[in-house]
Amino acid sequence: MTGLDRVPEAPPMPDAEMRDMLLGAIPALRAFAFSLTYDLDRSDDLVQDTLVRAWTRADTFRRGTNLTAWLFTILRNLFYSEQRKRKREVEDADGSIAGRLASLPEQEVRVEMEAFRNALDRLPFAQREALILVGAQNFTYEEAAEICGVPAGTMKSRVSRARLRLIELLGMNGAGDIGTDALTRAALGE
């Protein structure tokens, strides 16, 4: 039998432990995907694509390292690939359709959350991503830096600038002006 006659071996299938770890990471993946897309359907598609990619390439994951960071890196790379493909698409460029669909919040918390989301949307993407990874997803600066492929110092700078800009956009004097909303406090590093 020559080398040409051999059938390439399929990569080994992930084991039950890997399956359980992947399933356990779904809530964090969904939250991160939504923070990137602000669209439940797109974020669920991203999570599904991430899990499929992780499942088929489970043999490349090094046991004992941070699985969530590995998955976030896959998700982030898939998101950027999708964004590059979508550059030629135009969806409600002037926001007129979205403006007609919006309904005014009825509760103060919803109003504050909407103001927070609007302020978060106004941050440069790299700062928003850094703030969400560190502030809302509780990754260390080093883990977030690895996910984004930047030095830890760059991640710290992005988070710091994002926090300061977010406080400014929300018309606050400082983090002490923030109410009891856990998401807001987490994002601002309280």
Number of separate helices: 10
Reading the helices and strands in chain order gives HHHHHHHHHH
Structural class: mainly alpha
The best one-word shape is globular
Largest sheet, strands/sense/barrel: none
Percentage of residues assigned to helices:
55-70%
Mean pLDDT: 80
End-to-end CA span: 65 Å
What is the strand tally?
A: 0
Low-pLDDT windows of residues: none
Question: How large a portion of the residues is in β-strands, by DSSP E?
Answer: under 5%
Instruction: Please state the oligomeric state of the protein chains shown.
Output: single chain
Rg (CA only): 20 Å
Concise summary:
By secondary structure, the chain is an all-alpha fold. The chain has helices at residues 16-24, 26-37, 40-56, 67-86, 96-101, 108-122, 125-136, 141-148, 152-169, 182-187.
Describe this structure as you would to a colleague.
The chain has 190 residues and is mainly α. Helix content is 65%, strand content 0%. It has ten helices and no strands. It has helices at residues 16-24, 26-37, 40-56, 67-86, 96-101, 108-122, 125-136, 141-148, 152-169, 182-187. The radius of gyration is 20 Å and the shape is globular. The chain starts with 15 loop residues before the first helix and ends with a helix. The mean pLDDT is 80.
